[in-house]
Amino acid sequence: MGISLGGSKFGPVSEINVVPLIDILLVLLVIFMAVRPQIAYGLPADLPQQAISEALPAPGVVVVEVFGDGALRINQDPVEWQDLQARLREIFKMRASRVAFVRGDSATEFGAVARAIDVMRGSGITTVGLMTPELENVR
Questions:
Q1: pTM (two decimals)
Q2: Which of 39, 81, 51, 47 is nearest to 64 (CA)?
Q3: CA–CA separation, 105 and 23 (whole Å)
Q4: Which phi and psi angles does 78 have, rounded to 5°?
Q5: N or C end of the chain: smaller count of CB under 10 Å?
Q6: CB under 8 Å to 101, separation ≥6 — which residues?
Q7: Most distant CA pair in the chain, distance
């Protein structure tokens, strides 16, 4: 940093010479660029693995139908209330997607549908969708 005193005509000039400061800045920049890649930082990440061929999702949608008389069906196959959870676990054992739907007819009480949803959640199904006749006719 220098100060130019100038001549007697202009008087003293007090400007900072920034050229040496820029040189120091560039040297520091090069030093930090050279040191930075050698510093290890971050958290370890678990990368996704390729799915095993046995665990491929089975095709089709699982629909549990609850009827007004208390009867149950899983994809048109009749099932009893006490066997519902075991059958759902068997169906979803080899599936990657844990999504199923509940369909109730107009004579079905809400308590029966809620009981079916509770059994489905207890068997490991993460997402339970509701199917109604109005939504089915939209297609």
A1: 0.53
A2: 81
A3: 81
A4: -65, 145
A5: C
A6: 61, 62, 63, 64, 128, 129, 130, 131
A7: 112
For 9-45, write each residue's pLDDT tens digit.
666 667 778 888 899 999 999 888 877 666 666 777 7
Say if residues 127 and 98 touch (Cβ distance below 8 Å): yes
With beta carbons less than 8 A apart as the criterion, state whether 103 and 63 touch: yes
What's the CA dihedral at 81, 105, 111, 66 to 10 degrees? 10
Alpha carbons 129 and 22: distance in angstroms, whole number? 65
Show the tokens assigned to 35: 């040191």
Of 131, 125, 129, which Cα lies nearest the Cα of 85?
125
Alpha-helical (H) ranges within the chain are 19-35, 81-92, 110-122, 133-136
Position 83, amino acid: D
The predicted-structure confidence for 62-103, as pLDDT tens digits, reads as follows 899 998 888 899 988 999 999 999 999 998 888 888 889 999
How many C-beta atoms lie closer than 10 Å to residue 54's C-beta?
6
